[in-house]
Amino acid sequence: MAKMTVQDVDVKGKRVLVRVDYNVPLSEGGEVSDDKRIVASLPTVNYLLEQGAKVILCSHLGRPNGEPNPAFSLQPVAKRLAALLPGVRIGFSSDCIGAEAAQKAAALQGGEILLLENLRYHKEEEKNDPAFAKELASLAELYVSDAFGTVHRAHASTAGVAAYLPAVAGFLIGKELSIMGEALENPQRPFVAILGGAKVADKIGVIQNLLQKCDSLIIGGGMAYTFIKAQGYGIGSSMLDAENVGLAKNLMEEAEQRGVKLLLPTDTVVATAFAADAEYKTVPCDAIPEGWLGLDIGEESAKLFAQEIRNAKTVIWNGPMGVFEFPAFAKGTAAVAEACAHCQGTTIVGGGDSASAVKKLGYAQQITHISTGGGASLEFLEGKILPGVAALNDK
Ligand code: AMP
Question: Could you give the 3-state DSSP secondary structure of residue 283?
Fold first, then answer.
């Protein structure tokens, strides 16, 4: 069911608690070294400011393990936020709950911001402790969820607070849900899903869910070798998820029964070692030599996959086609990224490694949507209920 967004409620003059994702990297000098996530929060923050809301921002940063620790302070974020929003009054509370936060939240005027210190200074945050959630909620009159990267976790700030406040989605989450939701529920066809990455075990749920929805399923990356093994071929020393060979076989049968075209690599780049400078060559997937390990899809497979992708009307991609961290084994991932960039349909790249690959290769602008949450987007593709989304008010 569709969820309410900031645009469905009156926010003027209201104290609004916004869960953002300011889990940003800090330099050794304690400066924000990449402000992408702060910039990504601005559409929601600016909208609320323009509407005259009193904006209370909260986030986690790193893993302070439930205790105050200056190394994980959000103070550098306040500084960067001030640079990005000149003219806006931005206050800071050294604790996300307690007297200081309550007093500063109460004193806020419309169009002003209060940034709260790291939520994870309290162990109750990740435990979704109701008393902590209630105290956090008591700062505000409305809750806006806009940290997609954490909606698959039931924490106090991502789900718990919604028990005490009206809860709606911000623009970032709204976009994630509408684009990915539309692709899963009502895709333009042909719908091509591409899955890669290391382990079959991590993606079983996604494969099972997407098999019911897509027209073609492309499997590459380390997980492909378990499928090649299930086809009855030797895979040398390639990555193998031994426990899931039977499951891979079942999934291949299910694809056939459902009329889903399953594309596995037909050739692969094999190397003598898992190393950037290892000796390598391309071989057919039914002739992987003993002692060699597959680290990328081959050129023929890349062409086959690219052709399928270019003709699609909807593409969802999660997981690299090879060990793209090593330039010699990044060609397959690059070919898939390029094909996605040239596809005229809706293209969605799940967070994590495939998202970094697309950005690194300079194709980000040509992709319809790059998800901001690795784990969250995987769980969304699995068809799982995300606690941080379920907690929001229905339209
Ligand atoms: P995931 O987090 O499951 O999407 O996996 C991403 C990781 O899978 C990356 O670090 C890749 O280096 C790795 N990977 C991709 N292909 C292979 C392969 N053929 N063998 C080993 N690791 C791989």
Answer: strand
Catalytic residues: 37, 199, 352, 375
DSSP symbols for 71-125: GG-SHHHHHHHHHHSTT--EEEESSSSSHHHHHHHHH--TT-EEEEP-GGGSHHH
Token couple for 292: 């060699």
Q: How confident is the model at residue 307 (pLDDT cuts 50, 70, 90)?
A: very high
Distance 21 CA to ligand 1 centre (A): 26
Tokens linked to 136: 């956090």
The residue whose CB lies within 8 Å of the most ligand 1 atoms, and thus the one to mutate among 195, 229, 238, 239, is 239
Read off the pLDDT of residues 203-250 as tens digits, 9 standing for 90 and up. Answer: 999 999 999 999 999 999 999 999 999 999 999 999 999 999 999 999
Q: Which of 279, 209, 202, 293 is nearest to 251 (CA)?
A: 209
Tell me the one-letter amino acid at 7: Q
Q: Look at strands 261-263 and 216-219 and give their pairing.
A: parallel
> For residue 134, how many C-alpha atoms fall within 13 Å in the half-sphere facing its CB?
3
For the record, the structure tokens of 19 come out as 């869960």
Q: Is the CB of 220 under 6 A from ligand 1?
A: no
Q: Which residue puts its alpha carbon closest to atom 2 of ligand 1?
A: 197
Which residues on adjacent β-strands are paired with residue 50?
Answer: none
First to last CA, the chain: 8
Domains of the chain: 6-172 (3.40.50.1260), 179-381 (3.40.50.1260)
- Is the Cβ atom of 64 under 6 angstroms away from ligand 1? no
Assessment of whether the complete model's pTM goes beyond 0.85: yes
Tell me the pLDDT tens digit for each residue of 313-348: 999 999 999 999 999 999 999 999 999 999 999 999
CA dist 312 and 340 (Å) reads: 9
Mean pLDDT of 46-62: 98
DSSP result, 175-215: HHHHHHHHHHHS--SSEEEEE-SS-HHHHHHHHHHHHTT-S
Token output for 226: 């378990």
Count CB neighbours of 256 within 10 A: 11
Is any atom of ligand 1 closer than 6 Å to the C-beta of 387? no
